[in-house]
Design a protein that fits this description.
globular
Length: 216
């Protein structure tokens, strides 16, 4: 079969395109393989946070629509821990904490306290882009076990302020104080650091090299 100049040019272009597609595929695979263990764990943690947030917001919106903000109190008291438990699997533990907790059971430990204080400083600086979350992640060794820890700040949104703001309905405030006698999670303003998601996972039972990354 005799190839014309036109056919030859078409074959060359097709070959170049195939090579480009192969190069793009290799590049994509290379990027995936270049992810560090820490980055992979961060992605897994963010996925669990997204699932928790989506589920909780759905329950809150439904409860508020059916019975107002008073219904939201029972959701946060009973439903939120259940959703957190559902996302605490495959070695992961998911909780929420804050410098001003409503439930004393969510009081931060030493590591969480340090990150929360750093989150506050970053937020107060005004240098963090609004669409960029404030997070921290670190490998630590505790009791001979290497743990991965991750925190992601929770900015106070409009939905939060009905129960955590500075102008809470008196009837609702009475219910909150009855449910949480030691409540400190009030007087937040839009954009404040309401608290943070806190996740951890045991990586190994033996002490390993430790790296830390805090990304405000």
């Amino acid at each position: 079969m005799r190839l014309t100049h036109k056919h030859t040019q078409s074959l060359i272009k097709a070959s170049q395109m195939a090579g480009l597609i192969m190069l793009m595929s290799v590049s994509t695979v290379g990027q995936a393989e270049s992810l560090t263990e820490q980055q992979v764990l961060e992605q897994q943690a963010n996925q669990r946070i997204a699932e928790f947030s989506q589920a909780l917001k759905g329950h809150l919106k439904t409860a508020i629509k059916q019975g107002g903000l008073t219904n939201a109190v029972s959701v946060c008291q009973a439903v939120a821990p259940a959703i957190a438990a559902e996302n605490s699997k495959e070695g992961w533990t998911l909780t929420r904490t804050s410098l001003r907790v409503r439930n004393p059971a969510n009081t931060p430990d030493a590591w969480e306290l340090t990150q929360l204080q750093q989150f506050e400083r970053v937020n107060a600086s005004g240098q963090q882009a609004a669409d960029k979350p404030i997070v921290a992640s670190e490998f630590i060794v505790k009791d001979g076990k290497t743990q991965f820890r991750y925190m992601k700040a929770i900015p106070a949104q409009q939905l939060c302020l009905g129960c955590h703001g500075s102008n809470i309905n008196p009837e609702l405030s009475t219910l909150i104080n009855k449910t949480y006698p030691n409540d400190k999670a009030v007087n937040f303003a839009l954009g404040d650091i309401r608290g943070a998601f806190s996740l951890q996972k045991v990586i190994s039972n033996q002490a390993a090299s430790v790296t830390a990354t805090t990304k405000p």
